[in-house]
Design brief:
mainly alpha, 295 residues, globular
């Protein structure tokens, strides 16, 4: 019984990190109304940015947040402004331009292959990792310290985003644009600047997730694909555009992946995750916590 409780705790912790990786994806969808297929690649860029920040400066992994968050925000802001915004302008009468999805797919391949060209295919991990193997001992149970810190970071990030969206002028402008971009434009809101900011926030959130992952996860050019697939599943489970839904959806996936192998093979565990994904699509396409307006 204790093994199951231990697996549940670790599943919740890892699931919250999954949810954190999906938060940026759901923010971008909530505002731009398109699926960003390059989100996993943004996470990969965040991992490499964190790796080089730690390697070149020797700072503690979590202090890299102060370097990675602004760097990823700027990267996401200008990626949207330079590459994606022209598509929105060209298709301004289309609510959900399919061309943007094609462009984000191209960004995915470009970022992954450019990283492969620059840094090679080898797996990397941070040198002299101060968090490697750290565990919290609770009776006879062991809980991963980096995953626990990741859990706390996910909760703080979700609360911070919620506060930003509800209490700040920019957050209200983002919410207004996500609800009705034409009406928001008539009220003097520059919708394209809002798209840039939302994409920047999504990229910065991916950077936060990268910092929480780097103490126990290897870095390589296609690492984002692993989390991209989970991110789409989590966003659909929780509800497209829902911050809390992304967090809860991630915890659901984490619990299934952690507890499932106690009773079945890993293959069946993955099958349950995808089966739940399909069931939610059929029964409640808006997701478990999706609403008409999720902000």
């Amino acid at each position: 019984m204790l093994y199951i409780i231990e697996d549940m705790i670790n599943g919740i912790l890892m699931g919250s990190i999954y949810g954190l990786t999906a938060m940026g994806l759901t923010i971008i969808f909530g505002v731009l109304k398109v699926i960003n297929f390059a989100h996993g690649s943004l996470l990969m860029v965040g991992l490499y940015a964190t790796y080089w920040a730690i390697t070149l400066t020797g700072i503690h992994p979590y202090l890299a947040l102060f370097m990675v968050i602004p760097a990823m925000f700027v990267f996401g802001y200008y990626l949207q402004d330079i590459v994606i915004k022209p598509i929105f302008i060209a298709e301004k009468n289309v609510r959900e331009p399919i061309t943007v999805i094609i462009v984000t797919t191209g960004i995915w391949y470009i970022l992954d292959n450019l990283t492969l060209l620059l840094f090679g295919p080898q797996y990397r991990s941070i040198p002299d990792n101060p968090l490697q193997g750290q565990m919290f001992e609770i009776g006879t149970m062991f809980v991963s310290a980096p995953k626990f810190y990741g859990f706390l970071t996910a909760i703080v990030t979700a609360c911070a985003i919620h506060w930003f969206m509800q209490k700040t002028i920019m957050g209200r402008a983002i919410r207004a644009t996500s609800m009705d971009r034409e009406a928001a434009s008539l009220m003097g809101i520059n919708q394209y600047r809002i798209y840039n900011v939302a994409f920047g926030i999504g990229a910065a959130t991916a950077g936060i997730a990268a910092v929480t992952l780097i103490p126990f996860n290897n870095i390589f050019p296609t690492v984002g694909v692993l989390f991209d697939i989970k991110g789409f599943i989590i966003v659909v489970l929780g509800g497209l555009g829902s911050i809390s839904g992304a967090l809860i959806g991630g915890i659901i996936v984490g619990l299934i992946e952690s507890v499932g192998p106690q009773f079945m093979t890993a293959t069946w565990t993955e099958a349950i995750v995808y089966g739940l994904f399909l069931l939610v699509l059929f029964v409640k396409p808006s997701g478990l916590f999706g609403q008409k307006h999720d902000w």
